[in-house]
Amino acid sequence: MDEAALAAQLQAALAARGRGDAAAAEAALRAVLAIEPTHVGAAHLLGVMALERGDDAAALALFERVAQAADGFAPLHYNRGNALAALQRLDEAAAAYRRCIALDPALAQAHYNLGNVLAGTGHADAAIAAYAEALRLQPGLLEAWRRIGKLQTAAGRWDEAVASFDRLLAADARDADAWNRRGVALHQQRLIAEALASYDRAIALAPSLAEAWNNRGNALHDLRRVEPAIAAYDKALALDPQSPEATVNRGMLEQETGQFDAARASYRRAQALRPDYAEAARRLAGLDLLQGRYAEGWAGFERSLDWSGARGAVGRAPRWRGEPLAGRRILLSEPNGIGDTLQFFRFVPRLLAAGATVSFSGPRSIRALLRGFADRVAFVDDGDGDYDFRAMLWSLPHYLGIDEAGLGMDAPYLSLDRSRVARWTHLAEPGAINVGICWQGNPTRKIDALRSIPLASFAPLARVPGLRLVSLQQGHGLEQLASLPKGMQVVVPGDGFDTGPDAFADSAALMQSLDLVLSADTAITHVAAGLGRPAWLALASVPDWRWLLERADSPWYPSVRLFRQSRLDDWTQVFEQAAAALPGPGTGQAA
User: Any idea what DSSP says for residue 564?
Assistant: First the structure.
């Protein structure tokens, strides 16, 4: 077949393709390849047709046949990249798209597709750059803004994500998915009311968008609008009964309102819907621990670690699962915050008693409080090193078989430099009842809605004769000092307090001169109690698991006294009871 005949066959193939006769087009192209097996045009078009019918492997084989001959042909590299991406050979797909772009830098879709495979291989910044170039070349490629926003959300770059979704919505204000995702990014910044408005826009545009109803429930939960939150979760489940997220979220609200059997059923249903759902396992574990079912709770939390890939456990050594520790090296870490680290460090001596060599990788800021362990535990900055095992502190109770009898502390196990204590004694007034207070936790954590307390709720304490309130608050919540109720005063330590490299070290030092610490459920309680200082804790009607139910004491800390809400979200009675329980001035520390 001469060149003219080949050209005629190609024209026949294009004509057949144009009228929708795929069989005739394929026959003509295969006739060309039968004569000239590396004919670039025929192989490329046959490959494109294979892609269109979903036969990605056949398409790739055709592209590979002529790849060398067509090295300068940008469309072939573009479509070869599409075939490789469909076959999940993402690194090779990225290389193909890059070759296409080198030949034709103005092909916006190649940049967009490159962004997709880079996102799929975890190269978020490079993916965002590729999407941005696609948008520069083709501003109407709006889906790129969605992809950018999703990557920014996953990376915790919330304000940038909001800006990306706003760019998408500026072009298409009826994009319900974009409104919903914009709400998530706002929510993560604790801009709850704005997030709720965004979710509501999504729902108005797409009333059947179950994810937006679930997110609306989350926002209402954080605004403490309990009944509307339950209704939103119910709507999400009516639209998508198989949603494990909405199921576990409804269980969370059931637990917070004291419906423990219903909450347990919700968590179990979420696990049935997604058998490896780490969040459901963690929630069920928390409920078990709240009800004093320690063996089940520790085991459930360990399952949640298994299902989450043990995120947060530092190091590369195998996770410790109760193996003998005599003569072995174990690296500990704890990603769940300073409070959990201070609380669970009490179990480290048991590892030492078992013959382990113990290292701990955690923030340098808490080493001042843990200085009493410095001669027995190596404090390291990372997970590098030769270790036999690694473990989170949270895993220790499960493998040590800790029950309620094993929770307590024999003596204060936190300590600090005495010279620091002297630095802050001037803040305690002799003869007065000096009470350190902390009211606000970390607002970025979902549990903060139940833990944090408006500072104005502490006002009944200010009416106690001879009582002085001293702020132990750091960071979030300090703005409330500007709007205190009439007659309420709070002593603020001033500049330099806890601003150094050691977390809570100045707070801990000041506590030595105070009669009492009265706090919301924050790390401050663990600092005070770990030092053996008298500490009163104001709790929600259904608190975090570690404070159990109904009792006024804690098996974890002998110096802690618990004051509980009698009604959800009502702090009035809590602080009236605490004020009534305070001793008179000059009578010594509170009990």
Answer: E
